[in-house]
Amino acid sequence: MQTLNITKPDDLHLHLRDGAALASIVNHTAAQFTRAIIMPNLRPPVLTTAMALEYKQQILDCVDEQYSFEPLMTLYLTDNTSAEEINTAAKSDFVKALKYYPAGATTNSDQGVTDIRKPTVALEAMMETGLPLLVHGEVTDNSVDVFDREAVFIDKVLTPLVKDFPDLKIVFEHITTRAAVDFVLSANANIVATITPQHILLNRNDLFKGGLRPHNYCLPILKAEDDRLAVQEAATSGNAKFFLGTDSAPHERKNKETGCGCAGIFSAHIALELYAEAFDAIGKLDKLEAFASHYGADFYGLAHNEGQITLIKEAFEIPETIAFGDSVLVPFRAGETSSWQLKK
User: Fold this and answer.
1) 247 counts as catalytic
2) 3 contacts 315 by C-beta, under 8 angstroms
3) Span 201-230, pLDDT tens digits
């Protein structure tokens, strides 16, 4: 049996929802990760430091006492976010970043930024205080092909943003293309990226194998094989600009298997196992610990976690469904076999 021991990792891009849904899924993450950057796209969104503190307590109230888990909170950037709110957030010990959703880009993003030039005051305050901007990197112009939206975002939004705010710390979230990898590699040290398991393991053909696969639908959408290979290479390269962020995003089964299904893949149930499989497949297991446990913490100025977890190379069956509030969700790779599992 092959085993892998690594420092307890962090998930630096996670959706937990709220209410009964939150209570049913948070411990999938807490069982594997010591900390997680929590996305603020609730209804209503987390707009203020006070709201973030309230949401943090909701999360902690749902974490099983056997786990030591710290939610790292974010605020939802809008056109009107004030410098005062940025300063309040920066002075707190729990708000770690602001999240930029282009309005209409993804789930619960309708109150997002309509024009990146509008929250200038907030961005200037973030640059001064050192709070990072977490970027959902897609344009929402309907004239742009869905598979090109990340590349166009780099040209039309991200490149000017970096030029105008050269000291702003930016996390290019869930990158999916060779263009995104190249941009991060060529940018200064303030620009980094998170990488999901699905964008390492899947390409856009996986949306259509044997028919439409709604549970493989996420945003940014899966891309071509050349893009997948570029993202895989970035994740496994040992370059500190790239680190783990699952973007695990739960949706009720009926809201995925419908005429207008939600975007999002729930991977928290086997997150580390998926990364281990991907790294192992190309002989890069030795690069997993830094990617999962060191690089992200270093970027956010956090101490490395204490303790270790152990992964075992031993097959197990992934469940068909997982409880989600009063309903169920269909997890990533449902009904398939994982080649790695977390030692309990």
Assistant:
1) yes
2) no
3) 999 999 999 999 999 999 999 999 999 999
